[in-house]
Amino acid sequence: MKHLLQTKIGRLRIIGFLEGLSLLTLIFIAMPLKYGFNNPATVKVLGPIHGALFVLFIINTLGVGVEQQWKFTTTTWKVLLACMIPFGTFYIDKKILKPLNT
């Protein structure tokens, strides 16, 4: 874990993992609690956290893309798209980010 924090790609991987985890938590825990049990408290807490992680992922992706001189049409757009698709950040981490961080 410590080595991930030492590089921008490593930090992007951590943010991507947290963003993906927050989305899954919203979908599979918070939303059922809100609509199935009339308890919106979890969505009120996790919604803004997920939103902040989403924005942080986008900003960091653009920063890493510039630093690593990624071609937007071949790499950057794929990483950006990943955060908009459930499980996308986990997939893109395995296919693009992890190999770059080794």
Radius of gyration: 15 Å
Structural class: mainly alpha
> What does the average pLDDT come to?
91
Oligomer: single chain
Tally the helices: what do you get?
A: 5
The low-pLDDT segments are: none
Order of helix and strand elements from N to C terminus: HHHHH
- Termini separation: 13 Å
- Shape category: elongated
Biggest β-sheet description: none
Portion of residues in helices?
over 70%
Beta strand %: under 5%
Number of domains: 1
The total count of strands amounts to: 0
Notes on the structure:
By secondary structure, this protein is an all-alpha fold. The chain has one domain. It is built from 5 helices and no strands. It has helices spanning 2-5, 8-36, 41-67, 72-82, 88-100.
Secondary structure elements and their pairing?
Elements: H1 2-5, H2 8-36, H3 41-67, H4 72-82, H5 88-100
Task: Give the tags.
102 residues, mainly alpha, elongated
Structure in a nutshell:
With 102 residues, this protein is mostly helical. It has 5 helices and no strands. The chain is elongated and about 50 Å long.
